[in-house]
Each structure stands twice: as C-alpha cells, then as structure tokens.
Predict the structure.
Amino acid sequence: MGKVVMYGSVSVDGFVADEHDHPGPLFEWLTGGDVPLDETGVLKVSQTSYDYTRPYWDEIGATIVGRHVFDMTDGWDGTPPGGVDHVVVVTHRPKPEGWDPEAPFHFVDGVEAAVAKAQELVGDRVVEVAAGDVGGQVLAAGLIDEVRMDVVPVVFGSGKRNFGSVHAQHLLEDPDVVIQGNRVLHLRCRVRG
C-alpha cells in the first residue's frame, strides 16, 4: 500500500481556516509565483515550491476529505481537485441527491473505512488526507505515515485547527524536508511508529 499523508496549508499558530471557515491568506503562495503548478495556469508558485509540490501532487491517487469540505466546495462539481483520481468523503449522510454516480467520489462512514477504500482504489500511490478534523481523526487512529504542511506566515489566533480536535500527543520524526518558498515554508515529517 502507498503512504497515507496528512496535508494542508496552515498558519504559524496551527490553523487551516479562521473562525468563519475562511482560509484567508493561506493559499496566496499558490498564486504568488511565476511557475504554473497545473495545466489551468491559475495556480502559479515559485520555482522552489513547484519543485517540491508538483512531484508530490503527481504521486497522489486519492484524497480523503470530510463532508464539510465536500459541501463547502460543492463537491468540486464532480471533478476531483488537483488532478487526483478519486475523492473519498467521510460522512454519516448519504450522497447528495442527484449526485452523478459516475463521478470518482466515494462516500464512506468513518476514517478507517475511508483509508481502506482509498488504499483499495490507488494501490501503491499516495493517499492524501486533508488537514483539519478528518486529518486529526486519521492521525489519532494511527493511520498517518507522514505529515506535510505548507506553513504560511500569518497568525489567525483562532479558527479550525490543523490537527482538528486531537487531544493526545503524537510524536513526529524530525522534519526531513524544510523548503522555503515565497510566503511559505514547506515541511515534511514522518510519524513515529
């Protein structure tokens, strides 16, 4: 099976969104450069960020998100973001009424089921877990292999925490990647086994 990676852009005080669920400047690094990150040309980053981010994005086979993120994005109109093949949505509710059954979205109940479904779908490719509540639940379940964070120089003071409502200590290895981009610091740490 491929790695399970928790990933997100985060403020220096550990938030993925403010108290109103807005990411504020957390994604500005994705539009503040000169190098197109994908074929749309909308996302443009520094060369340093491209060299770190693009190879990782190419490894991702599935992304796991919570129903809240799915609803906020209107399910990305049935097209997984960033060229990912599948999205696995953790939810206790049924698919939205009228949802296209051919769209590569899978609705499951619980984070363990989400990781199992994503790994089944992608084999040796990376399973990405969105930071926030679902990411924290997957970490607490002991299913995260690696944490990647794009740390943005902003302090929110309050909001949606990067690791959700995790209440126990989880040790990570020393960062094995620390890369400075424009208005972002890319970090990668493996989870201690």
In short: Helices lie at 47-59, 67-72, 111-122, 133-140.
